[in-house]
Amino acid sequence: MSERTLSGVGATPLSGVGTVVWYRPGEALELDDPPEPDAVDPATERERFEAARDAARDELEAERERARERVGDEEAAIFDAHLQFLDDPQIGDAVGNELDGGLPAEHAVREGFAGPIEQFEGMEGRMAERADDLRDIRDRLLRLLVGGERTDLSALPEGSVVFAERLTPSDTAQLDPEVVSGFVTATGGRTSHAAIFARSLALPAVVGVGDDLFAVEEGTEVVVDGDTGDVVLDPSEETRAAAADTDRAEVRREPVATTDGKSVEVAANVGQPAELEGAVEQGADGIGLYRTEFLFLERESSPDEEEQYEAYVEALDAFPDGRVVVRTLDVGGDKPIPYLELPEEENPFLGERGIRRSLGVDADLFETQLRALLRAAADGAGDLAVMVPMVATVEEFEQARERLDSVAADLESEGIDGETPEFGLMIETPSAAFMADEFAARADFLSIGTNDLTQYVMAASRGNERVSELHDPQHPPVLRAIARTVEGAEGTDAWVGMCGEMAGDPDLTELLVGLGLDELSMSAVTIPEVKANVAETDRESAGELAARTLRASTKRDVERLLDDETAD
Ligand code: PEP
Ligand code: MG
Known about the structure:
Blueprint: E1 4-7, E2 9-10, E3 15-23, H1 42-71, H2 73-86, H3 89-100, H4 105-121, H5 125-146, E4 160-164, H6 169-172, E5 180-185, H7 193-201, E6 205-207, E7 221-225, E8 230-233, H8 237-245, E9 256-257, E10 263-270, H9 276-281, E11 287-291, H10 293-296, H11 305-318, E12 323-327, H12 355-358, H13 363-379, E13 383-388, H14 394-413, E14 422-427, H15 430-434, H16 436-442, E15 445-448, H17 450-458, H18 476-489, E16 495-498, H19 509-515, E17 519-522, H20 527-536, H21 539-551, H22 555-567
Parallel strand pairs: 3-4, 4-5, 5-6, 10-11, 10-17, 11-12, 12-13, 13-14, 14-15, 15-16, 16-17
Antiparallel strand pairs: 1-8, 2-6, 3-7, 7-8, 9-10
Helix pairs in contact: 1-2, 1-5, 3-4, 4-5, 11-13, 13-14, 16-18, 19-21, 21-22
């Protein structure tokens, strides 16, 4: 049989070869029409519902333990969120109303969950992913009520490639990377839960393939290319060999430099303590972005000073000879935290986000976080750097520094006197890029967040598939904003890094070095390849490539220039 290729979005730059195992948790859950209400005994149905809820709780607790062993405490916390949803009074009431109305338990569950799922689906970004969590719980209850079987994802045969419409957090947490060769889903994007898990498990994965996926039969041989997003069915010997042969670049534990001797720090982006180990294993020089909002997600209240302190010390101890850049809480936009009760905003990406909240409504949280950070800097092994997000004005940066200084003075009076950490900001707004020289004169470093910078420069939302062509940092205006930021720091002591997704694209390493970046920070899996590319880069030709690229007028021209370079 000749090979066929389906295309989706690559989630991890790894390839896998294996055999399709379909995971269809919803299949057994097609329900017939409900009987007439007077043929149903509400008391019995309520008991059935309660029994299913108890069984779901037992299952979730067991899965939480398994996830804890496999991927760590933080990922396992997703199950805490599921347990909370399971006992959520609002959802319980919605199901209860349906039961009172005379529906059998399974129909009551389906109807009772429909409203909350729809509500979450209407939201943006990570909040929309909560809809997946709710579907997961609903389907679990339905399976328990109608007795459907489901594939045990934690006990798959070696070499399985899991195909599914979607994989929920509890599904992905059960996959054992030692056994599973990868997964492919019909839905999802680069930032979906499934894709993020794939990266933390270093599992080849392609998401968002669409409905064509459903035509693929169980048992089909397949190559999953998480780099290109290709899913090759019935691959030829040649394709299989090429996939098996895409040896990953060797892990380099030492810092790297260009052929002409300029050091470029290659660091990891992490969101939770469980990812630190992977970052060390992949040879990260340090942490270039610690997204602390993950410490605040999937729970009912903020972590206190002590809990944060421990998380930050753990990060600093993981890199005793390196630098750990911790970004202060970046809440708002696509990163809502339910218990912080964010206001309804017409356009949350242009609203109260990041530093705007830390200097305003979340001032207390900011102080707690700064205290935890400065205490950790005094006790942890590595060097702490503190970074503030979403800065648009010089005043914001100066006010943030005043808060840091005041917390440092308080701690000193309590006898805690650590080294002053480096203090810098993310360049994520066009205003910060335009004012980079002013910021560089005041900061120890600038770190370019191309995910947000691209959305603000291009006026194209980062999570909206309809404008994904525009949300691409290879558009000339984004490249010019990056160049302007680097130029702004010339002649100052500030170093310039990049921690948006662009930094981890190995095809862009030469361009980024040519643009003059001192540090690149990315998902741990891409570190070996980017380090290898830095070590092969000659700064003079990289600089020429950057100069040519900055003269380009369209993204196509930029892509052509980069392709020519790879062809050389
Ligand atoms: C960015 O905006 O590029 C960035 C790294 O921050 P985040 O993706 O967490 O918004
Ligand atoms: Mg950002």
